[in-house]
Amino acid sequence: MDTRGIIFDRVSLSYGRQLILENIVLSIDEGEFVCLLGPSGAGKSSLMRLLAGLAAPSSGEVSINGERVAGPGLDRGIVFQDYTLFPWMSAGENIVLALRQAFPHQLGWQLREVAEEFLDLVGLDQAFHKLPSHMSGGMRQRAAIARAFAVNPPILLMDEPFGAVDAVTRAKLQDLLLQLWQREGSERPKTVVFVTHDVDEAMILASKVVVIGMNPGRVKEVRTIDIPRPRVRRELYRNDRFQLLRNHLIELLQEDVMSELSSDRTVCPPGDGI
Amino acid sequence: MKDMTVEATLPGSNCRQKVAAWAGGRGGFMKTAWLKKLMTVPNILFVALVCLQFLPDRRTDESAVLYQLLIGLLGASYLVYAHLGRGNERVQTAGDLLSLVFVSLGTWQLLTVKLDVLDKMLFPSPALVLDLFIKETPAALKGAAGSLEILLVGYGAALLTAVPLGLVSGWVGRLKRTATPITRVLGPVPPTVYIPYAIVMLPTFKLSSMFVIFIGAFWPVFINTLNGVHTIEGRLIDSARVLKLGSRTMITKVIFPGTLPSIITGATIGLAMSFILLTAAEMIGATSGLGWWVKYISDFADYPRVIVGILYAGVVVTVIMFGFDKAEKHLLRWRR
Questions:
Q1: Given an 8 Å threshold on Cβ–Cβ distance, is A131 in contact with B253?
Q2: d(CA B206, CA B284)
Q3: Is the ipTM of this complex over 0.95?
């Protein structure tokens, strides 16, 4: 039996009486770029917290390479939509702090050099001493990605990391992420688990899309995206296979939104969650 | 003023007409503009205050020259300031403040020296107070130094103990659950009630003052730190946990800076409390310090000097608060 990779084995999670995730069965291979796609409130972030070790499942088990996840570990880096960087430290200090935990025997100047190198890599060569509050949202996310990659964990968890930036910046950040993900190709490839509610984002990034349904959160469908890389946005929209798959995914998402609307417990604006 | 600069840049005869109309008709444009510029409230009040000086005194006021010099200096520096930074908000604020000062000084002088309607012993003239303010500088500074020593030790000890204790108790759930009911009981006790007991319990007056200030500043700092730990954004804590920070790094690099805004709020309350406690304690049993000095002088019914003492207390507190604000701005510069 192959035990490398991430396995969710009949995982459920509830807070009090509320069931958040129900019977999640999912396996993610090493080196895969997996997008968890689902409407807001479906429990994608909870799934992520389980994987990060920030929460424990109510039943079932999450395991990485055959070992049960019992808490956070340096083998998993995480990037949130916002508030990943500590606002009281400069971008560089943020990275050095992370590096110091991962490489406790390295000297300060060595860590600073690595931090500079990774800031360079994400196009923030002048930002070492900049405080997050003095950077734009896109710059902050670049720095957060630099921090996650600098520590070089085999698994990267990203919880709607580009949710708060404008469309152009978002596209640039997606390209940057893919570039970094493929850069490591020579050694062991990184596994990326990426949460989004944006179908296009999932289709440009993912090698596998996991559609999460809501009330309670469950795996609705797992789809391999076998569109060859590099995926050029302009060409994708003319690609029939892409369009077909895109329509299919949007329909899957719509189902949830529609049933949510018809049950009329919560009024959610149309388009939200797609 | 804005109109003038705008119109003056317009070319042609149209402009001339408009400027002339603005300047109030025929001729004398320059003269009128200058006069109009000088006709501000602080300047008018300044002139009124100067005129007041020529009114005959009803009360002997031998030290008036210094006071008049001060008024002249204030008026002149405002003129220069207003000329250099014309039209901006700061000049406006300075002018408003100065107007208030001029009105107060004028009223004060009018009611004491000029009309003599107030009691001479309780209400000295502004000139006399200024004279004493300068003469008593050594005594006041000595008193302030004594007070500051007590304040520094008491308040410093409170910060040095309350912040680490608050951070650790706020971070460790079990400690927080224990500490919270204790703060509910001991926190609201007015620290002044400790004064008589502290004086009896501790060997010197200085120590007992320090102790009372320590208690008074400790609780606000501790409570704010304790509760502040939970105001840190949850995702920042998650972020730190994912990085596997050790407990020490966690507290010094994440919990402490994240709680700093709350700590500073508590420290501000503690500092204000310290000032009150300091003067209260000094008035009860001290033999030095600014509060003691004011109390000592009032025993001789020397009210002009009492006023000087109060002014000095104000100056000392202002200087400390100024430094405190600067420190706060520096420490919290990472906030937007």
A1: no
A2: 12
A3: no
